[in-house]
Amino acid sequence: MPVPWFLLSLALGRSPMVLSLERLVGPQDTARCSPGLSCHLWDGDVLCLPGSIVSAPGPVLVPTRLQTELVLRCYQETDCDLCVRVAIHLAVHGHWEEPKGEEKFGGAADPELEESRNAFLQAQVVLSFQAYPTARCVLLEVQVPAALVQPGQSVGSVVFDCFEAALGAEVRIWSYTQPRYQKELNLTQHLPDCKGLEVRDSIQSCWALPWLNVSADGDDVHLVLDVSEDQRFGLSLYWNQVQGPTKPWWHRNLTGPQTITLNHTDLFPCLCIQFLFQVWPLEPDSVRTSICPFREDPRAHRNLWRAARLQLLPPRGWRLDAPCSLPAEATLCWQAPGGGPCQSLVPPLPPANVTVNKALELPLLNVHPNLCVQQVSSWEKLQLQECLWVDSLGPLKDDMLLVETRDPHNNRSLCALEPSGCTPLLSRASTRAARLGEQLLQDLQSGQCLQLWDDDLRALWACPMDKYVHQRWALVWLACLLFVAVLFLLFLFRKDQVKGWLRLLKEDIRAGRKSATRGRAALLLYSAEDSGFERLVSALASALCQLPLRVAVDLWSRRELSAQGPLAWFHAQRRQTLQEGGVVVLLFSPGAVVLCREWLQDGASTPAPQGPHDAFAASLSCVLPDFLQGRAPGRYVGAYFDGLLHSDAVPALFRSVPVFSLPSQLPGFLGTLQEPGDPRPGLLRERARLVSQALQPALDQLLKAPGDPGDPEDGTRDGT
């Protein structure tokens, strides 16, 4: 039985107050201004083009504050719409040019300067209004006598009547001048609904509004609409984004009571519901009302964070992709090799720059594989971290990061960033940086360190530590040489016994090499089409585990996959596999081929995962760039199953790596997975025979099943 989650009506407003609204008669927009100002409203709407900020040529009028008030725009006594009145407060920005030369000392005044001070200050003020699905921009011309104002002084306000909006909608208003002399003002407001309006009898949409009951039943969320049997309405689900336009997701034209079922993974804080009602059957006009019921839902915020993807862009850019605006803070951090937390660096990235779905620049002079970007959510302190420069610049380096601090007198101090904190150079601390302080300072002065970031007060330097590691091991090498000399003398005096010992040592080394081969990592990626195909993949993975391979597949990691999300799980497995010298195996099926073609046709858009555990769909955004940029050979291997797919059905992009048909080409497939020189040819054929015996029953069962995916009409071959 569904458990009630929360009960709300579309007549439920954000404010418990009951508002009595002023009525405006007629559809005409108007503008009026406070005493001392004159204003004019342009006919019709204008294009919303803020442009870049320019320097003011002198005193100019600029908007300083926005205020809103709700009113009713009425066409008849009982036919009114909710409308937003906007008041723009103005002030003088900039200064008059001061007189030069003898005019400063009582000389004759400049006639042009006097004329400009006796003229009018004029401004073209733009008001931009957005409320899904409406967007408008209007232009107001305002002027005031220049002689009556002083720089920085407030000169009054202009009132615009009015922007029509839907009941319960979220509206956003911007104001700026043309040309633009400062950052635009902005205001976001949630409008009340019928329950919060004293004059609801005058708004026809309030007569037909349904009750909306939102309840949860396991993983499903039910939207239950209680309306009359003959009530016709349109229902839209959309993402209401603060940054950028709204994104429609789902729309239906419905009649009478309805129950809409959503999966809990579809919930996001910006997911809103809009109702479009036809109040009178004979009239084409409709009224809209909107509600966003998931803004504070914990599951919606968790889904948003799991769907977010942080990526670093060459040469020094980064971008956060997410369905909604993400309240988060971004920082640069330094990731030392060997694990441990990523240490935050100064400067942090300004919160104003955390804009979703937009490429941003990092304040860096040079990039380094140890530099990462962290994204920390203000909701439950979740975290994203990406060090994607590792793919282009190589693995993490054992470099020492030096932090240089300067005071206003240009005095410098240096410290080295270590796990325990920032250790001052030339200190007596028992850390590696303190012991090598003088050498690091000499490296910095001789230009051997790479400067990563610099401003007036701080700088960051990365100094290589390889040569000091070599010096540290010099005594170890000397000891090894002495040990070899002793062994040589022992060999001379006891030749026969030493030969037997060397023979045993050689066998131990050979056995150790075989043991190491058994540990090579292989990550299997596939598209989960049905249970039969999953059994076939499981049979292949189990058979490969009996060989010198360590196999990772999402079938055996469902708990981690659900906790981390498909993209995060795949990214961690891929990084670990490639760092250990392993290989990623792409198992192609009809569904996987379709996903790849959709990704290639749509360009940079990422295909949506086909299920909560579908790592293949989630991994395409990371796998395909490796093929497009030529990094796939040596890292990836392709395979498909006999009877399920044509050999030429594999997209051409993936043929840059070996692609095998299983089980007919198992020897070549296993030989590619093994490290060079491991098994002898006879042993490799025996292993292929064992894997084929384990694989063939599951493949035969899948090919004989009703609705076989190997049907030729689906673009695959019949296995003959």
From TrEMBL:
Region (Disordered): 699-720
Matches recorded under Pfam families: IL17_R_N (PF15037), SEFIR (PF08357)
An individual GO BP term: inflammatory response
Source organism (scientific name): Acinonyx jubatus
Ranges where the SEFIR domain occurs: 519-671
Keywords: Cell membrane, Disulfide bond, Glycoprotein, Inflammatory response, Membrane, Receptor, Signal, Transmembrane, Transmembrane helix
Transmembrane regions: 473-493
Protein name: Interleukin-17 receptor C
InterPro entries attached to this UniProt entry: IL-17_rcpt-like, IL-17_rcpt_C/E_N, SEFIR_dom
Keyword Cell cycle: no
Membrane topology type: Single-pass type I membrane protein
Segment forming the signal sequence: 1-20
Record text on subunit structure and interactions: Homodimer; disulfide-linked. Heterodimer with IL17RA. Heterodimerization with IL17RA is independent of the cytoplasmic tail. Associates with non-glycosylated IL17RA constitutively. Binding of IL17A and IL17F induces association with glycosylated IL17RA. Forms complexes with 2:1 binding stoichiometry: two receptor chains for one interleukin molecule. IL17A homodimer preferentially drives the formation of IL17RA-IL17RC heterodimeric receptor complex, whereas IL17F homodimer forms predominantly complexes with IL17RC homodimer.
PANTHER family xrefs: INTERLEUKIN-17 RECEPTOR (PTHR15583), INTERLEUKIN-17 RECEPTOR C (PTHR15583:SF12)
One annotated GO molecular function: interleukin-17 receptor activity
A cellular-component GO term for this protein: plasma membrane
Cellular localisation: Cell membrane
